[in-house]
Amino acid sequence: MRVDDELARALRTFAPLFVVTHVHHAKEITPEAREACARLVDYGIPVENQAVLMRRVKLERPGDQGPDAEVPTMRVRPYYLHQMERRRRLEHLRTPLSPRRRIRAELRGWTSGLAVPHLASTCPAAEAR
Fold it and tell me: What is the pLDDT of residues 21-69, one digit of tens each?
């Protein structure tokens, strides 16, 4: 579904309504995504981003702030960064928390605290399900 004026106008009637995007890598931020987010924000609909921290997808190099540094330029608030749950056959994508802590520290020195995402992680008891 495309975000056009008609959709944005219709969504505005459901306030309070928040749209949450799932941008995991800065390369996912296309001109179309920028335009859709701008349109929603212009119609008064807050847009936030949540992503999953994955090895080889996000935050590979020191100084790489990933989409958390880019989405605010789209007037999108970085909301949550989820630590990937432990799942069989997906462990190779899971990263330790230390890269996320480093990135949060770098973002805090570079941008407003409102643009620093919360770190979310599943507790071990929940992972046992």
Answer: 998 888 888 999 999 999 999 999 999 998 887 776 655 544 455 666 6
Q: Say how far apart CA 76 and CA 41 lie, in whole Å.
A: 8
pLDDT at 62: 43
DSSP 73-91: GGT-EEEEEEEPPP-TTTG
Name 82's bridge partners: 52, 120
Q: How does DSSP assign 12-42, residue by residue?
A: HTT-S--EEE---SGGG--HHHHHHHHHHHH
Q: Which residue has the higher pLDDT, 18 or 26?
A: 18
85 residue type, one letter:
E
Contact (Cβ atoms closer than 8 angstroms) between residue 43 and residue 7: no
User: What is the Cα–Cα distance from 114 to 100, expressed in whole angstroms?
Assistant: 17
Non-local (6+) Cβ contacts of 10 within 8 A are none
Compute how many other C-beta atoms are within 10 angstroms of the C-beta atom of residue 98.
Answer: 8
